[in-house]
Each structure stands twice: as C-alpha cells, then as structure tokens.
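Posting for a labmate who doesn't have an account.
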Amino acid sequence: MKDYKIAPSILSADFSRLGDDVRNVLDAGADIVHFDVMDNHYVPNLTFGPVVCSSLRAYGIKNIIDVHLMIKPVDRIIPDFAKAGADFITFHPEASEHVDRTINLIRDNGCKPGIVLNPASSITHLENCIHSIDMILLMSVNPGFGGQKFIESTYKKIQQVRSLIDNSGKQIRLEVDGGINIDNIDKVAAAGADTFVAGSAIFKSNDYAKTIKLMKEKLSLV
C-alpha cells in the first residue's frame, strides 16, 4: 500500500469541544490535521487563526498539522502559524505578490511549503517552483465553504500533476481537498493523489473510526 494519508479538515469539527474532537478523529485512524484558514477577503468566509493551532498543540496534539492559507496578502501570517506549530503551510499563488519569496519565507520559518491550485488555476503555476515545494494541494471544489460536491474535472488535473511530480524526481505530497468521501477516495487515489482532505465525510459521520476504516480499505485496493 502506498503512503496514503487521511487529513480531516477541522472546518467541519465541533468547535465547542475542538481539542476532544481532533483527538477523537486521530485516535480513530486519521493521520494529519488539516486547517482551512479563510479571511473573508480572498475567499467569502472567515474561520480561524494561529491561536487555534497553538491551542491544539498545547492540548497535546502531536500529529502533522497542515495549514492551508486562503488569505491575501499571505506573507504576514506565515511566521505566526509556524510559531504556533504548523508543519506544512500551503498557499495560493494568486494570493502572493512573489511566489518564490513566499515559499522561502515558509521554509525559513521551519515549515514545509506547498502550492494550492483552485479548480480554474492552471498547472503552469508549478513550472517555476515545483523543485522548491513539498506539497501540492489541488482544490476539487471552489474554496470558501465546506460540504461541496467534488468537481469531476479534477481527476484529469490530478493525473497531470502526478506526472509533473514523478518527472521532477522530488518527494512531493499530492493532496486533494473538497468533496472526498468513501465513494470516491479510491478514484482520487487512482488518479495519483496520496493525501486526502475530508471534512464533512468524517466529522459529520456517526462513527469516525468506521468511516476512516472504510476509506483506508478502499485505498488498500488501489
């Protein structure tokens, strides 16, 4: 089995008991904690900042924290999330005035940098930076809200980006975010993804462990 990782998005968690809910989903078999950070500017929603990340670390969460910044401008908040305990920090190239500078800022602050592509964003954004990043996140919904339906054209894009990664010779995680569930996670993996953001499909289920087990069973057959 490939090195697949399931990354529940805390956007769908119960914020009245966030520490417990994140702990429960990790105990149920999840691998990565995914943060969807929105600013009500770059995307039409407002979520949370570095204090939530640092609070989860203080609570005792030791798993990888993967921070997806849907904010513009992006550079100002990067050191704060790094200090708060982020491991990966990904951003949208459209939200940065100087993509290479933002990548270096993330790495200089001790985190692994990544690029996020929206459904309508071209993979040409990756041409000049693929050798400098550790993750590529493909949005399979339009960013801003949880619970959306997977955009079918993403499968082709996953295949194209997987080819770019393989040709680069680098170990770059290919993450997909939006509308992933038990019914399609195997197809997303078959297209070339190795990291799967699932918010509603896990946090809104009645049994985290059962849902994650079913996802991993699907992945084992790819």
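Reply:
Got it, the structure tokens are right above this. Residues 86 and 178 are 21 Å apart (CA to CA).
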